[in-house]
Specification:
single chain; 478 residues; mainly alpha; 20 helices; 83% helix; Polysacc_synth; Poly_Biosynth_Transport; Oligosaccharide flippase family protein; cell membrane
């Protein structure tokens, strides 16, 4: 499990590093308004990816891990249902492109949404391959494919330079499509190699309705994630003026999502790991694994959004240019918002193993009713800063509600070591904020990266000295 976790973390680090290389190139070669178009297209795709990817992937991973049904039948029917969902979203993007242009006040979006439609089926098949590998506990294979994908996405840079000089937005979309197709081929080859593990020793066939219910339950829950991580950008595009603010907000969102991307490594693994323990009727081991995950997150992940939140202006100015400083307060909020959302997802993944998906469904419905109007009102009255603050408050509340739902089934999950790590992170925020406000005014990206690395190393060193966590032996044991 730990080896798979470390490899998935490495995969996610490669994912955001490659993504930042792409955004650094785009943000420094395109006008803010054009960069905002890229952000808008990617935001809509992220929303659809959340719905398509996590529902099928998590449902498939859970059912294969628990081995309640015939594995081959589970895979076949999951693919069938995924194809139905893919068809719906393809039609929405391709045939609804003019409507997107009207709603988002930009008729040039029509062409790009039609290209984006072809990314939907490619992504839908790609995530199924990841879910199957995770279900058979092949976390290393899943991590390898997930690592290759962001590297392959870097093809957008030569495509824009040499092929799509006059239309960089189309170049981004074509590059992403080619990367997905390449990884689908790799995923199919990996399953051929591990095909013996896809044969179950028996088990009844799963009902198609069960597959649909499980997939949609996970998918509907991830609408909450999509709304908070994606809809705010669309609201900015629709109601905030001038148009350049969308580009500035896109810059803030790119760094704000960092902690969420890192935490996907945890809730990708925690679902099948806990599901396997529950399937073996070993509740104590399942709870122990959850506590272990929470400690690792508090020590190794939490300080990252904390440092970004406390030094947001320096980061945006260093990575882009001085004009992006206007989005610094938004980034301070979004960095913590994404962490809270990552915790919300992880806690709901745990909850689904101890109970039905009903709580996640209710949480999704309430969020659907509340979040979108909240973003619109915040955008009209307070611009991008208020929208980001609304996002942070929303995710904090969903995290608290999710934790309360989980501990009703498991008992308290907050250990003394987790509490020490959280207090340490709060202290770290205050120290970094003071230092960057009074002493450290650097806008050199490499110097800033060095300061971040030093702050992170000091924090981890303090945690190790306080015996909150043992490193590196604990993480590298396998």
């Amino acid at each position: 499990m730990r080896k798979g976790l470390v490899l998935n973390l490495i995969s996610n680090i490669v994912f955001f590093v490659a993504g930042y290389v792409i955004h650094y190139f785009l943000g420094n070669t395109m006008p803010a308004a054009s960069y905002g178009i890229v952000g808008t297209i990617m935001t809509v795709l992220d929303f659809e990816y959340m719905f398509l990817s996590n529902g099928a992937r998590q449902s498939l991973s859970k059912e294969i891990s628990m081995r309640r049904f015939n594995i081959g039948d589970v895979i076949r029917k999951s693919i069938m249902f995924q194809l139905l969902l893919v068809l719906v979203f393809f039609a929405i993007n391709f045939f609804g492109a003019p409507l997107f242009g009207t709603v988002l006040n930009d008729s040039s979006l029509d062409f790009y949404f039609r290209i984006a439609a072809f990314l939907v089926p490619a992504n839908g098949m790609y995530v199924l391959l990841l879910g199957i590998n995770e279900g058979i506990q092949r976390f290393s294979t899943s991590a390898l494919i997930s690592t290759i994908y962001p590297i392959a996405k870097l093809s957008v840079i030569p495509l824009i330079i040499f092929v799509f000089k006059n239309d960089p937005v189309a170049g981004v979309e074509i590059g992403y499509l080619l990367a997905l197709l390449f990884c689908i081929i790799l995923g199919c080859l990996s399953l051929i190699r591990h095909r013996s593990e896809l044969h179950s020793t028996g088990g009844e066939k799963i009902r198609f309705g069960t597959v649909a219910h499980n997939t949609l339950s996970f998918s509907v829950f991830f609408i909450v994630v999509s709304l908070v991580l994606s809809m705010d950008t669309l609201v900015v595009k629709s109601v905030v003026e001038p148009a350049s603010m969308t580009g500035y907000y896109t810059g803030a969102v790119n760094f704000g999502k960092l902690s969420y991307y890192l935490m996907t490594a945890f809730f990708t693994i925690i679902l099948p790991v806990v599901a396997k323990a529950i399937g073996e009727h070993d509740t104590d081991t399942a709870i122990s694994r959850v506590k272990e995950f929470l400690l690792l997150i508090a020590v190794f992940i939490l300080p990252i959004p904390v440092v970004i939140s406390a030094s947001s202006e320096n980061l945006l100015v260093s990575f882009y240019h001085a004009d992006f400083a206007v989005a610094a307060p938004a980034l301070s909020c979004l960095s913590m918002s994404s962490f809270f959302m990552g915790m919300t997802v992880l806690l709901n993944m745990v909850h689904t193993n101890f109970a039905s998906n009903r709580f996640s469904d209710v949480l999704s419905i309430v969020s659907l009713v509340v979040v979108i109007p909240l973003f619109i009102v915040a955008g009209k009255f307070g611009g991008i800063t208020w929208i980001a603050a609304a996002s942070m408050c929303s995710t904090l509340l969903t995290m608290i509600a999710s934790y309360c739902a989980v501990i009703r089934k498991t008992g308290s999950l907050i250990t003394g070591k987790v509490s020490i790590a959280v207090i340490g992170a709060i202290t770290l925020w205050a120290i970094v904020r003071i230092l960057f406000s009074t002493v450290l005014h650097t806008t050199n990206l490499f110097a800033l990266a060095g300061l971040y690395a030093a702050a992170y190393a000091v924090y981890i060193g303090v945690m190790a000295t306080a015996k909150v966590v043992s490193i590196p032996k604990e993480l590298l044991k396998q």
